[in-house]
Amino acid sequence: MMNKIILGLLSLTFQTASAESAEPVTKQAPIVDVGALMGEFQTLKGGLSTLNSQMETADEAVAPLKKENKVYLDDQALKKNAITAAIQQQKDLVLAPRVAKLDKKIAAWNARCSREFNPKTEMGAYNQCESDYAVIEQERKDGIAWWKEYSDKWVHANVDPLVVVMEKQNARIANNSAKIEKWTKAYNNEKAQFIAAKARIDKILRTVKAYCRDKPAPTDAFVYGEWIKWCSNIDWDGTSTALPPMYHSNGIGGATSN
Length: 258
Hints:
By secondary structure, the protein is mostly helical.
């Protein structure tokens, strides 16, 4: 039992000593590979013009396709309006006179026959009304059959050719719309890449600016060359505005003649 207590005290003492002697942990600043970042920057910057050119190509490809589709749709609207007007004209000029003639006969029959007949004295008149009704009903049926045959022939001669044209237009519209969808998808994809590249470029410049802002010019010639390459002109790329000016103008007040 005593051995267990001693071991416990030694263990506790060791842990306490270790805790007291531990060095405080300092967070190290991340290492910035400026060369790699600026290399990526140059690649992305060069890619922006390519993406912009691709978006222009997609936009230029879509515009005439939309214009062509609009021409077809406008033409179809005119054709449909013309067909509607022509059908109404046929009804007014061809069907309506025949319907009016039949309606006149029906009105005359109603005026003469829509009443109670005296079976003792008016059976002849009643039978005549029944016979006239059968004639009118047959004329009505004949009129329906006549109008169907006439309108079918008229539609075949006047409407069907226009429908054939519109069907061809619709096929072309569908083909153009598929191309528009393809180009629009490509445009949106390239736009997303462009936005992502711009965001990455901005982040790279912020990172390099923060790195270069606090870095004094090194004395080593090679390192100085790298510093000049990446840091001395960083303000030109839209980074630090707190760098010292490139030169100081002292004016010409101290000039003297030779």
